[in-house]
Amino acid sequence: MHHTPPLQLLRLVLRRRRAQRDERGDVPGWVLITVMTISIGVGLWGVAQPQLVSILQSALNSVR
Prior knowledge:
Layout: H1 6-24, H2 27-63
């Protein structure tokens, strides 16, 4: 019968836990990036809306 020393068993358990955490990724970081990107987009739209609408209308009118 083969017995695993406690230290090796602990290392194995910690290695598995670390691997499970690594698969999850950095969810809070991605949420923060997404929220910041949306905030920048909404902020730019609020400031530049008249100019963007004018550019779009001009482009669409030139196609007609």
